[in-house]
Amino acid sequence: MKRRQITLSEAGRRSAIAMAVAHGGSPVLRLTSQAKLAASLNEWAWADAAINELRHFYFSEQMTNEEYLQVKVVCLLCWRFDVINELYNQAEKFAFDFEFGVAQHSCDVPPCCFEMRADSPDKCSVLFHPDLNTLYWAEVVAVRTIFMLPLVNSYMKFRNFKAGTFIFDMGDNGSVPAFSFSGYNTSNLIPDAIFIESDGYRSHRDQFRRKPVPWSERRDTLLWRGTTTGVADNWRDLPRVKLCIWAKLSPHREYLDIYLSDIVQRSDDDAEAIRQENIIGQFVSAADFQKYKYHIDIDGNTNSWPGLFIKLLTGSTVLKVESEHGYKQWYYDKLKPWFNYIPVSSDLSDLDDIVLWLKNNDSKAEKIGHAGAALADDLSFQRELERTAQKMRESL
Length: 396
Hints:
Blueprint: H1 11-23, H2 27-40, H3 44-60, H4 65-77, H5 81-91, E1 97-102, E2 113-120, E3 123-128, H6 138-147, H7 149-156, E4 164-169, H8 193-197, H9 202-210, E5 219-227, H10 239-249, E6 256-262, H11 268-276, E7 292-297, H12 305-313, E8 317-321, E9 342-344, H13 351-360, H14 362-378, H15 381-394
Parallel strand pairs: 1-3, 5-6, 5-7, 7-8, 8-9
Antiparallel strand pairs: 2-3, 2-4
Helix pairs in contact: 1-2, 2-3, 2-4, 3-4, 4-5, 4-6, 7-15, 12-14
């Protein structure tokens, strides 16, 4: 198999990786940084040497979760399927013969897709698109693919297993006929990679159950934090920027805590202009979301995958801004307006009236919050894996 050059980054990021190799991190992270840098420069002997050293670490020493993930990612990006297949079949001890590889897919899909070939309950392969390395965000695709392996494992153990081929899109906005995290066609939507990797947001579920904040002790405040993700030529047209500017000008601003927490995906000039708007606030951890009675959710590049789900888990009232592009996730058919969430028009024209309603209808808002939490609780990790396996089976 011909090895391909991996384009991971521009010169600035290469410099950052080089600094990591030279100055910081554990031996494992230094080696993974070295391998990534070598791949980006097409120095394969250097990359192979680093990966061969890493192979000894995952069998002989305890690694952190971050290090373990980085070893897997660098093997995939450098096409070292021999090493990562050894890892999964010996260290992970899958109950079936499993392998990563690369192959032309069975249908015309973008390079961010992978193909799962379930040949029998005892044999499965996950195959990357041959042009994956043409993507500047190839590393993101590799990480998300690794996060999806519990779903692969779930289907292989599914009681109604049927041999077949499945395409999964690791992009933000999915493509047909692939199974996708977010998009317009609800028939092919599946739980996103963050939901699966986090075991269905288990840490947040456990925290909110262990230390629930009573409704009466929560702040009468509508909270939002997020970054400047989204697609718009002019930064002023970003839905999240519009939300923050609305909050700054709203007559109800004393009840609002709505700010950007960071600026991403924009030029330096745009970033400076956004700072001048005074709409950047202090970061608020999701662990503190239960301290607020009201939350608002709004799209970024697509739906905010963990954003909406974690807010529902809090039991606070969730306002969801209608997606300008009609994006949905796998459970959106279970969202019921004014029952388990409050809808907001995409142009925010009704948001002032909704804030006023919240101020005057505290008990009704509390009931909506409880219904939202009940929905999120029902969407458990194991149950959603089983439902997705059934959806995969029905697609054959």
